[in-house]
What we know:
The structure holds 2 protein chains of 2 kinds. By secondary structure, chain A is of the alpha/beta class.
Amino acid sequence: MREVDVSCVTEAVKNLCIEANRYLPEDVREAIQKSIQEEDAPVALGVLKDMVRNYTIAEEEQMPVCQDTGMACIFMEIGQDVHFTGGFLGDAVDEGVRQGYTDGYLRKSVVKDPVRRGNTGDNTPAVLYTEIVPGDRIRITAAPKGFGSENMSAVRMFKPSAGLEGIKDFILETVEKAGANPCPPVILGIGIGGTFDRAALMAKKALLRPVSEHHPDPFYAALETEMLEKINQLGIGPQGYGGKTTALGVNIETMPTHIAGMPCAINISCHVTRHKTVMI
Amino acid sequence: MKKSIRLPLTEELAESLHAGDEVSLTGYLYTSRDAGHKRMCEALAAGESLPFDPSDATIYYVGPSPAAPGQIIGAAGPTTSGRMDAYAPTLMAAGVRGMIGKGGRLPEVTEAIKKYKCIYFGAIGGAGALLSKCIKSCESIAYEDLGAEALRRLYVEDMPLVVIIDTEGNDLYRLGRERYLKEHNKNE
Lengths: 280, 188
């Protein structure tokens, strides 16, 4: 048994929230730079170059890449031999978000009630997912998620007979319908299988994977490649101004499902797809 | 070639712009988004005046992140304009001529843009740090209780924008995509 004081979690979450908002991950930077080599629409090319200038300024000036510093999605993989002391884990995570968003001059974008609204003033609560894993380590990832792209996401419960074609059509339809709203070029996190809720969670977790990596199953890896190519033939382009670069990556996660179903969730993320991880 | 334009956005200036034009904008504009728009429209409905003179004014749909010490403003990129669609025609009727945001608008907004000779500009969504550098002054003028959504008056210099919908109702989101697909299919 390893004892971990929850104040360590607060400190880690605080720093992750600030850093994730200021530094765009390397894989996303590389994907934008690669798209500059391949884009041929002039206005689109200017937009992509401005995106590079943007993340460079954010890093130099220590400010958020995007003003929508998101709802703080926190993923924790907790070794089953860990025992937390010094308080409740959920409170410690929220305290980390509170400190990170205040000390890091990040925008407080959370309202206390979905219908009656009213800003909570400190960006809490976090959207916290915990998973028990073997060992005595703790892996914490902060993934601030903006809502321009979150609002364009979709879940559909397919009949199994819809097959692969049904999923492909759904992906293209969702990107097309989203148009310029989610700040393209986008990154798609897609969850196929499980249950209604699990498909959505897989879609969100898929966004944590670098766009340069593929699904371990060659069948789904090929689907990722094919869908990226098809999306980039839609012509929506950076910011919807017309062009080749509509998406930077398609990441699929899968799991077994029920004989009667084929859930599919698509979580759209923007060109400022942020995440940062630390091990304790 | 970028067109340099200086606010206020007069009818004559608006009519000289076309969907797809890249512009570099300088002058005073006002910030407002969801809750601020609701309040402004409620004020107009009650026969009250707005906190600023709407004639030829430009509104930037933005909720910036807080300024750190030494900064004028935090990251300040555009938010999704569609959420302001319910309010935009009322504000255009009151005199507002320019809107800056990102994302598609409803047909009734495009109709109002044509009717009142307005311009809908696109700023790069997600380019909050870059756009922040164009903002040279920032003062809060109303609705401070709304935090990030407070009504602010900004002075911007050389703000990089693209004309999305022009006074004739042409829409870059449709035209840009059509143009790209036409070129692309021709090359194949």
